[in-house]
Structures are given as structure tokens and as C-alpha cells.
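From the pipeline queue, job 12 of 40. The input is one protein chain; the requested action is below.

Action: predict structure.
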Amino acid sequence: MKLKKYNSLITVFIAAIIGLIVHKTISHFIIPKEFEADFVYAIPLLYAIFGLLALAIVFLLKKVKETAPDSVGYAFLALTTVNMVIAYALLRPIIHIHLPKTPTEKMNFFVVFIYFLAIETYLTIRILNNKQ
């Protein structure tokens, strides 16, 4: 079945949607509206950015698995490093502002980053354990 080939990508997409729904629901009750309105990156934008990065990483890991199965771990480390550099570049504007909302925005940013890092790690383990 062709759909089974893209199972990991579908997992990332579904996890991103579920994570966004849960995050927005929780933040609706915890984060003051005036804080959320002034965020540098809206929560859905963070999920879109990190979701696309996660999709790209998982897709590339699947391609590496097809061509060089022994290099999947190294590819994961390299792609995760690139992901962290991109995350730091996105985080810089948040770090440089000092407003009452800044700790809340940093927390949201790191929650989304760690959520997608956990998804990528889980799927990489599944890719590595998949005997073909």
C-alpha cells in the first residue's frame, strides 16, 4: 500500500494538529489575551513552522534510510542541529525584548520546540527499528 510509505509524515501532521488544539485550549485559560495578542510569533505560526521542519526532517530521514540505512542516526543528528539553529534564529527577537509577556512567549516557544523534537525522535526510533 502506498499510504503505508507516508505513515510517518501523516503521524507528524496529525500530531501537529492535535498539539495545536491542545495548546490553544490550554493557553485560552492560562495566557491573558493582551499577552497573546502581542506575541512575536502566534502559536499557530509556531506549529506551522516546526511542523514543516519536522515533516522535512522525517521525509529526509526516510530517504536516507532507503539509500544509506547505516547513516540514519547521523542524519538525524545533523538535521536536528540545523533545526536547533533555525529555532535559535527564530528565538532571537523574543530574547531581545523585555516585556511582561516575554517569559510566557519563551515558554510557548520551547513547549512547541520540545514537542516536535519528541515527535521527531520517536519517529526516528521507529525508522531505525523498521527492518526492511
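Job complete. The chain has a mean pLDDT of 89.
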